[in-house]
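User: Show me a protein chain along with its predicted structure.
Assistant: Here is one chain, sequence first, then structure tokens.
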Amino acid sequence: MLLIEYLEDAAEKIRSLTMKLRKLDRHYRRCYDRDVRREMGIVKKEIKKLKSEVKYELLLNLEEFRYLDKYFPELLKTFMEDEYIGPVLEKKSWLLHYKSIPPREAAMRLEQVKRWRLQLREATKTLNEWVGTVRSRAFVATFPVLRGHMKGEMEKDEVREIIRKVDKLLLKEGWLLLISDSLIKIPISKYMNKIQLLKSQEIYAVADLRKAKGKGTVKETRALRRLEKIRKRKHHYENMLKQILLSNPSYLRSLKRKKNWLSREQRGAFDKFIEGLTPHKVKEMAWLDEMKKKLKIEEE
């Protein structure tokens, strides 16, 4: 199945669920029925789950996602502007701007991004103590990272929103650098270490829960909550690591061929972790021909 076919299907499912939710919401506003509210909660969970599946599918098909942007930008723009699937695609659209960067340049640019983000944190502290409107020229002179984003006299809330947006852009730029071949080992090692630590904590938490069985509801509940918290954090870091690896499919494929760069303690666990991660490989020209047939585009 082509990615656009999957996206068309997903958009229709999200649209259908959204319409159902709106209908339930209108009904609930008339009667305030508890069962209707419960059903609304179920539909919301279904929408959230479906959107998560779409994001993951985009990562699995990242090469095709990038080819769509390369060969059919207007078609991709149409999907991006769709009320239902568009916001989901937008959240992963920053990955379309990935470019391979030489190691030295990547490291230098990452340090620059860190300095800029630090400057934004200082700007926020200064803004919190600021009295009255903000004169852009004076503020930008102190925090040049905001040059081009501020103009004239501005309200504090306006400046705060600008800082938030600039920081968001820098965060994405930083991640584009971190998933490059030369730097991706940094986040991989970081999250793998966190996962391994939480796995150890999980073993002890399971043992504590077994000991607490039948020794009082409070103690057992506390042990269960601790275990659930650990598993939730572990699941979060596992998802983060999956996203990082799938964000650079060519690097992930090379890792699956050559698994010798991690420490000996981590190697076995990491091999198991990436075993089920298989990004979909696309033959560019064959895919392009299939897309043209799908869209009924004639060769010039």
